[in-house]
């Protein structure tokens, strides 16, 4: 079975129709949601403090919608214009940038409280850095990884973390990636969830700036077959906690009607209430000033 | 969409362009206004991260001159509401961001800035 990221870089692989199909796939939505909650957990942000996050390889905004829901402000970067267009249509709240992270980026030092990249293998950003190649010497994977980690380290606050999901194919690859991240100034390491399950195994590069607010790399989740169901139950619990927090007024102030409608629509799109999904996204009217 | 909060964090990343590469000048912009949720804690926490002069300048470039030249000592409600509007409710849909140093143009089209560099511009 060949993996999509080995066939073509994402900006080619995800044409317009692919981007829409991808985004509307319920299974993909669920997987992205689970990965996003886990990445947020590993970020270990101080509780009840607002945060500004960077979503690397934000794609069509499936993870961004969860960041919106959780009350985070964010900026997303992606190499695939068709995916970004879908994200725009879906009216995620974050700013979206067309960017090849292998070229580095220009966010000022200390811009973000954390960075996440909760991605399935088809759009894993580390894989993107490893596989993209042209004949130009500065386009080699080590160069691209170096530019990316250096720019990322600088853009993050001290202390903070970056949690990047990846799909290493060998120990050498892990070694290459972590050594370049270390040279760029990061601490941290690799977190493996469900190491004994082929299906549920997930690998995260958990990078610390300035200690990342903890002395040790977090532990991976463990357990055998119950993994996915178990993980989902956990997220549901967390979600219920969030709802309770919101109800008791701890998390956010009362929301406007428009906002609530939008969130309802969001849940509907993700198939939470048994409402048929609407494939058309209704655009809110925007007031053009100039 | 580019909001001024993100614009305020963005410097030019062209190879060798390391000084006077911020803020990117906003040119020929079309903006849209979208209501955003007011979050006082976020704003208070974010102010130290802002380059204030750059924010005031960028706001003027998109036609908003409501911000004071300096951050006031007293962060009252009126000021925070104004800051909220400038940072989070003004969206740049079209136009370009131009580096004051190397003059690289980052075009913004349909709300998405193109930050891709040519091979010779990569550091
Ligand atoms: Zn420049």
UniProtKB/TrEMBL annotation, chain A:
The record's keywords, sorted A to Z, are: Methyltransferase, Transferase
Identify the domain of life. Eukaryota
Give yes or no: UniProt keyword Methyltransferase.
yes
Q: What is this protein called?
A: S-adenosyl-L-methionine-dependent methyltransferase
Automatic annotation (TrEMBL), chain B:
Record-given protein name = Trm112p-domain-containing protein
State the organism of origin.
Answer: Auriscalpium vulgare
């Amino acid at each position: 079975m060949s993996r999509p990221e080995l066939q073509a870089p994402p900006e080619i692989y995800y044409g317009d129709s692919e981007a829409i199909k991808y985004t509307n796939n319920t299974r993909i939505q669920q997987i992205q949601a689970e990965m996003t909650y886990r990445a947020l957990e590993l970020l270990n942000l101080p509780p009840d403090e607002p945060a500004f996050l960077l979503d690397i390889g934000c794609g069509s905004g499936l993870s961004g919608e969860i960041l919106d829901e959780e009350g985070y402000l964010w900026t997303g970067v992606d190499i695939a214009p068709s995916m970004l267009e879908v994200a725009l249509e879906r009216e995620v709240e974050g700013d979206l940038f067309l960017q090849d992270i292998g070229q580095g980026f220009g966010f000022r030092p200390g811009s973000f409280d954390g960075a996440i990249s909760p991605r399935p293998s088809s759009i894993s950003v580390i894989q993107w850095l490893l596989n993209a190649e042209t004949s130009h010497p500065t386009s080699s994977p080590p160069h691209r990884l170096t530019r990316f980690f250096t720019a990322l380290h600088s853009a993050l606050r001290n202390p903070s973390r970056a949690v990047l999901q990846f799909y290493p194919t060998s120990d050498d690859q892990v070694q290459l990636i972590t050594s370049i991240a270390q040279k760029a100034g990061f601490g941290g390491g690799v977190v493996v969830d469900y190491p004994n399950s082929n299906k549920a195994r997930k690998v995260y590069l958990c990078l610390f700036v300035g200690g990342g607010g903890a002395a040790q790399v977090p532990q991976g989740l463990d357990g055998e077959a119950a993994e996915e169901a178990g993980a989902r139950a956990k997220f549901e619990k967390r979600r219920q906690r969030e709802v309770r927090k919101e109800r008791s007024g701890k998390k956010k102030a009362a929301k406007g009607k428009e906002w609530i409608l939008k969130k309802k629509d969001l849940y509907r799109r993700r198939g939470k209430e048994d409402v048929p999904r609407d494939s058309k996204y209704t655009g809110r009217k925007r007031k053009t000033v100039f | 969409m580019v909001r001024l909060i993100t614009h305020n964090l963005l410097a030019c990343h062209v190879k060798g362009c390391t000084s006077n590469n911020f803020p990117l000048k906003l040119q020929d912009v079309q903006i849209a206004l979208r209501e955003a949720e007011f979050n006082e804690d976020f704003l208070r926490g974010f102010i130290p991260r802002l380059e204030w002069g750059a924010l005031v300048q960028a706001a003027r470039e998109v036609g908003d001159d409501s911000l004071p030249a300096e951050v006031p000592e007293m962060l009252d409600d009126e000021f925070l509401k104004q800051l909220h509007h400038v940072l989070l409710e003004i969206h740049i849909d079209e136009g370009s961001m131009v580096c004051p140093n190397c003059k690289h143009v980052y075009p913004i089209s349909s709300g998405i800035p193109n930050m891709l560099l040519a091979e010779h511009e990569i550091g």
